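quick one before i forget lol
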Amino acid sequence: MIRVKLQYEWQLQPGSGQVLEPVLFRVLYAVHSAGSLAGAARTAQLSYRHVWGLMGKWERMFGKPLVKLSRGRGAELTEFGQKLLWAEQLVQARLAPEIDSVGHEIERVLSHVIELSATRLAICASHDLALAQLRDRLAQDEGLKLDLRFVGSLDSLAALAKGQCSLAGFHFAEGMEQAAAAMFRRYLKPRRHKLIGLATRTQGLMVAKGNPKAIRDLSDLTRKDVRLINRQRDSGSRIEFDELLSGAGIDPAAIDGYHTEEFTHLAVAATVAGGMADAGYGIRAAAAHYGLDFIPLLTERYYLACRSESLQEPLLASFIELLRGAQLRQILAALPGYGTGITGKFYDVSDALPAKPAVGAVARAI
């Protein structure tokens, strides 16, 4: 099995050879979490001497302190240390999905050349933490692999329509079926396609820990002291967010940052965690990942669309078994805001995407 792992590196000056050691960010995060160098050393599984030397080395390189020590109070990151850690988290949140997608695309091409592509299932999907974790777990074992590429909900469905993937992941809010249905029905036909439930997710506003701006609801986003970080156009989250604003009678032009976009839930959360925005719309699990406070606004359903005729294909049949198995349930149970009410169930397009308002989609057995 061919496996490709792409990485990036931090250089203080291009071509200087001064490359930041990845362990530095592990230690900074450990100091932030543990509140002491000794605790950070234990968390990072390094010696205290190693941690002390690492901090000293890079403080000399930067010419700025990374950690502030105080007698009886342990250690905490300086403002510069916090910003450096945030920058790494933002890079991870913004680039990791794209880097993974490129790596898996290289694997797919090379595997095809040596006739190993029969074990890879192509999925285009709106960004989702559960799917990413499932892909990573499957990559460690023999058998089915997920060729997963994260794009917006509408782009995913367009890729399915063009035959560029076997599954397309998209989502929309319960109670907003009619608003989203017209967009999604352009690509999904009742007889031609079938939907498989992945999970329900809680979406809302992510705000800094302690909610220092006292943000309570969408109306607070119009305040002059509040900056928003938004999701990209045509993403399922952006469609939901715009519908929420419309329902509340809020003009997007009144929101500072409405046109500032990120492409994943984690990138939005990292931007808020780094203090570059005061609020962002996204899933509860992303807020929890960065220790943010969360204001729930709605529950949404995440579906995987496929062509009805492909349901009996071996790869897709194996994947459906995974959706109904313990491995995915474990992943969902560990992600705050995720639910399993629709997981592994089949839905007709006409039920899940009604032309008129409906009480709820009806699951059908296959």
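fyi The chain has two domains: 1-101, 116-364.
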